[in-house]
Amino acid sequence: MRRMLIVLLLLLPALQAFPQFVYVPLSARSAAMGGCLIDDGTTRCVAMGYRSGFATAGLSTARLDASFPLGQRGRLHAGYSHFGDADYAEHQALAAYSMQIGPRVEVGIAAAYSLQAVADGHYRNRHYLAPAAMARISFTPRLQAMGLVGTRPWDEGPPWRLHVGMAYRAVNRLLTLVEVESEERWRLRMGFEYCYRQHFFFRAGLATAPLVLSAGAGIAYGRYLIDISAESHPVLGLTPQISLAVCF
Asked: Partner of 141 at 20 to 30 A CA spacing, among 39, 52, 92, 207?
């Protein structure tokens, strides 16, 4: 039971690390911790989520992800997300593969296909294929680092995006995340998670440029983990999100 709870606790960032580079939204757990993406290598899980962008129906996103082992050292991730409404929508399908190349090192590649669909006949639909690469190093059981590099979709801003971060668990109940990403400018992300009696989780985080504050909570019950979060943008307002994960 304890092992299963630990797997559930660490699940959702593992399902989001590759997709974030191609604008697939974060899980509620990651969103509550400033959008941090540290990947723990979890397998055999399915997750689904819903994000209401600034509490507006036309800016909502629904997603489904699955992660499972492939071979003795590899794992495969597949995901799909839908953003928007009948007038404008973005569809994205993702496939990623990673493999252990040593006791402490994991590397991987990913590709995401995106479709930007516009109902208005005056505009053409657009397609985009975005590759990405990842490396994860576990220095100790309590300290790990990750780096990702990938292309940006469409034709907005710099074509490349870089993301590096570290996770440190000073004590069993407290996880601290610090990450930096380079897009149009550098952005810092920080997140904290406190575990209470192995079933309840309380989270907080922030991201800069612009400053976005976030918070959330989660509960683990058997094979299930439910997370909720809220992000506060200084101009656009509140964005709630919910995620459900199942391990098998």
From this structure: 207
